[in-house]
Amino acid sequence: MSSSPNEFPVPRAAPTRRDALARLLRLAWPASLSYLLSSAYRINDQYWIQGIGPDAQSAIAAAMFVAIANFALPFLAAAGALSLVSRAMGAGDEAAARHASRHALGLAVALGVAMALIGPLLTAPVARLLALEGGTAQLFTEYLDALFRTAPVLFAIPVLDHVFIGRGRTFAPMLLQALAVSLNFVLNPLAIYGTGTRAALPDAPFAAWFDAAAGALSVEELGLGALGVGGAAWATGASRGIALLLGLWWLRRTTGTSLRPRLGLDRELLARLVRISTPVSLSIAFYAFVYWALFAFVLSDLGDDVKAGLGIGFQVFEGVAYPTFLGLSMAASSLIGHALGARDAAALERTLDVSKRTLLAAGIFFALAFAALAEPVAAVFSASEEVQREVVLYVRILALSQVFVAFESLWDKVLTASGHTRALAWIGGLGNLARLPLSYVAVTHLGWGAAGVWWAINLTTVAKAFGLWRVVELGGWRRDLDPVTSSDAEDEATLPRG
């Protein structure tokens, strides 16, 4: 297969800083835009469900962290796919890249089917675990039930993205996300309100058009419209499902990766995928479960306005900043994986250098943007002055940690690319778990209210960033650059062949 415009080998000549920056940005802007578009689902949901009321926004905020916990499962395949595919491409082994891609996608779909069967049974217990009550609990279970049922699609999408990015092809995920988000914007009001969009949100763009379209398509009669908050989840699943089918076709056509089910499994490869991915998956799970505990034991006493403020601040503000950091970090990860596979130390060091400078600049930019835009943006997403006040409080405190969020993302992806991921679980796990006692003390003993929780998040973010930086600086992950092939299970020489 010939290389696409976004798929290229790491050059053997020592790259200049300008060359390294150009390659990083060439991969990063489509990746960042892709992740920004992915976050647009949550922004779409927050915007369209406001017509149901603050209870719906509080429910979506709680469900968001359950959804993040769910993504720990597909990352059992995704993180390993990024590492194995990028290093296989750097080594010039197309067959190994296809082999790893096929097994990672199959694993993701299998996990998604299991979640679709088991997840709906867990919605009510999870609502009780999060101390949700009344209308908020009911809306939470409606949304989460629908979201669980779309798990096979939602689990396969991030793995497909990681396969493309591992190849240095970030343009494909961007286009697929653009298609899916565009579809989601149209499907959300139809699925949530049916012909009642204008009544619920008279100032919403195209509200009259959406009502007319819902009537013409008979979505309510077909059971596809006016589904309430659950409709937002179904709209997400449908839009991503269409993008997934197109993306799989694209992967097959451009790389020759066979997607036909096969009886024979490479158990050694599956074990390696899971071994590389497990620390990343655990880190995601710890992150989400800590927020579950915060909802149950700390935020439950602070009211729905605080939870709604958290939901809007997290999904709208961090939903723009973090995808930007992640896109830059994923681009760096792909280049580092290629350099490790090619044993190109010069390219590796230059990529690290320009990545650190770029992430620093991005972190400073978003810190300033958070502080400046908190009030005007909060007013767009809620008519409630109380909710707006909580959004502004959250965003302005979190602004102070954005540089550290950027570097945490970079160090995470550097280690993921190398396959040396063990530190991610214990540093991320301990850092996130520390948020619970710190938040509890700040709220119950110091009387800082919601601000105490947000400061606890800031403090632990700084600690995690420094912990991962220390692991990267120690350099054990660089041993794959040694000219003598390592027998370590994580060494690139054991990449599957054929």
The coarse silhouette is globular
Largest sheet: none
Structural class: mainly alpha
Number of strands: 0
Low-pLDDT runs: 1-12, 483-498
Radius of gyration: 22 Å
Total domain units: 2
Count of DSSP H/I helices: 19
Instruction: Give the integer mean of the pLDDT values.
Output: 85
Strand-residue fraction? under 5%
Give the ordered list of helices and strands.
HHHHHHHHHHHHHHHHHHH
Head-to-tail CA distance between termini = 15 Å
Q: What percentage of residues falls in helices of 4 or more residues?
A: over 70%
Main location: membrane
Protein name: Multidrug-efflux transporter
Organism: Rohdeia mirabilis
GO cellular component, one term: plasma membrane
Provide key terms for this protein.
single chain; 498 residues; mainly alpha; 0% strand; globular; disordered N terminus; MdtK-like; MATE_fam; Multidrug-efflux transporter; transport
How would you portray this structure in words?
- The chain is mainly alpha-helical and 498 residues long.
- It folds into 2 domains: 20-210 and 225-260, no CATH class; 276-479, no CATH class.
- 76% of the residues lie in helices and 0% in strands.
- It has helices at 17-48, 54-70, 75-90, 94-118, 123-129, 134-149, 151-166, 171-193, 197-200, 207-217, 229-255, 267-297, 304-342, 345-381, 385-398, 402-418, 422-433, 435-445, 450-474.
- Helix 2 (54-70) runs antiparallel to helix 12 (267-297), helix 6 packs parallel to helix 11 (229-255) and helix 14 packs across helix 16.
- Mean pLDDT is 85; it is low at 1-12 and 483-498.
- Keywords: Antiport, Cell membrane, Ion transport, Membrane, Transmembrane, Transmembrane helix, Transport.
